[in-house]
Amino acid sequence: QKKRRAATARRQHLKSAMLQLAVTEIEKEAAAKEVEKQNYLAEHCPPLSLPGSMQELQELCKKLHAKIDSVDEERYDTEVKLQKTSKELEDLSQKLFDLRGKFKRPPLRRVRMSADAMLRALLGSKHKVCMDLRANLKQVKKEDTEKEKDLRDVGDWRKNIEEKSGMEGRKKMFEAGE
Questions:
Q1: Which of 37, 106, 146, 169 has the highest CB neighbour number within 10 Å of its CB?
Q2: Which residues form a coiled coil (predicted)?
Q3: φ and ψ at 144, to 5 degrees?
Q4: Cα separation of 125 and 119, whole Å?
Q5: Percent of the chain's residues with pLDDT above 90
Q6: What is the distance, to the nearest Å, from the Cα of residue 9 to the centroid of all Cα atoms in its chain?
């Protein structure tokens, strides 16, 4: 038990030491990022000096507006380039799949469709043949014998009860009795 306690105490001590090191590293990284941000802003964004006269203020606004336009044009150009390259990359990857012979299967949904509808979808307007599968089957006549007919009539007792229930059933029974 003493060894276990010592091992757990050592493990806890190591964990706390590692956490302290991680906290100090995170603080150092945050300070370094802040310094880097300040340097970048000082380099790329000079402090704004507002002129005193109205004429100089209008010129400053025109310069800023021209800068905004140029930045917007650059942004638009880079977006178009990105779209073009992504489309080209997609086409090349599709060609690569085609050359390898491996095709990416699209996710398929189950659709209930008759044979006529399927042929119409595959062949388009060319499909004019009706695929009535039952038309090609042979017609078989079943001979009804008297015995089977009687059994069928007697066997469906629900039908007889439904017919005899209510006033209409009583009327039928009365008329049948006469």
A1: 169
A2: 23-102
A3: -90, 120
A4: 10
A5: 33
A6: 50
Please, which pLDDT band fits residue 51 given cuts at 50, 70 and 90? confident
CA distances, 107 to each of 47, 49, 110, 139, 149 (Å): 56, 60, 10, 43, 54
Q: How many Cα atoms sit within 13 Å of 67 on the Cβ side?
A: 7
Asked which of 60-64, 72-76, 102-106, 166-170 is least confident by mean pLDDT, the reply is 166-170
Please choose, from the candidates 168, 164, 144, 166, the residue with its C-alpha nearest in 3D space to the C-alpha of residue 156: 164
DSSP string, the chain: -HHHHHHHHHHHHHHHHHHHHHHHHHHHHHHHHHHHHHHHHHHHSPPP---SSHHHHHHHHHHHHHHHHHHHHHHHHHHHHHHHHHHHHHHHHHHHHHHHT--PPPPP------HHHHHHHHHGGG------GGGGSPP-PPPPPHHHHHHHHHH-HHHHHHHHSHHHHHHHHHHHH-
Mean per-residue pLDDT over the chain, rounded: 79
**Which pair of structure tokens corresponds to residue 32?**
């370094």
